[in-house]
């Protein structure tokens, strides 16, 4: 089994990180990158919370000239992300910091915050400590994430968050309590026959009518859907 994932313009090594490259995180990164490319959202500086391998930072760097600050609490993941980023054309564009987002301080307010956070609260945990940190909200609760977004987000900025579909309502209560609001939601299913399992959220300080859309990763014939292929065609080797 490969310990790396090869994209068209960069390689993500992941042997020392608990959370590997996965389809939903690639979809999420491409969804946000497309918004930057089309100027639907604008950013001169970006904060990547819990960057892991550096995947999301690299996907955004491919589509924007914004300066990116990537924060990672796990030491092994921090080292791996630093190494991954150094091997790319965007090494001057991305800075990686070994810190929890709770302890991270910056004079900047960020135009865009992106995060694929620990998903699960109060659920069964695996025996692997690093994977627990990455998958479960033991080091970053939904409340911690909400406060971090509120403190770091520019007045007219946006935050993009990837969550399990069934956790959105819970997370939204924390957001609304801090005067943060979901303006856009992309619900993701494995196929048209499957229920939604992930939601990509776009959040801001401005309350507005919710724009809600959906996407199936594969079509009824088990091939990648046209919508998914169009989003990932600048990243995946075989697209």
Short description:
This protein has 239 residues and is of the alpha/beta class. It has helices at 23-37, 55-61, 75-86, 129-135, 142-152, 168-177, 226-232, and strands at residues 4-6, 11-13, 45-49, 67-72, 94-98, 110-115, 153-164, 181-189, 196-204, 211-216.
Strand order of the largest sheet: 5-4-3-6-7-9-8-10
Order of helices and strands: EEHEHEHEEHHEHEEEH
CATH-derived topology: Rossmann fold
Main sheet summary: 8 strands, mixed
CATH class: Alpha Beta
First and last CA, distance: 22 Å
The overall number of domains is 1
Say which CATH homologous superfamily is assigned.
Vaccinia Virus protein VP39
Helicity level, as a percent range? 25-40%
How much of the residues is beta strand, in percent?
Answer: 25-35%
Mean pLDDT: 92
Counted by DSSP, the helix tally is 7
**CATH-scheme architecture:** 3-Layer(aba) Sandwich
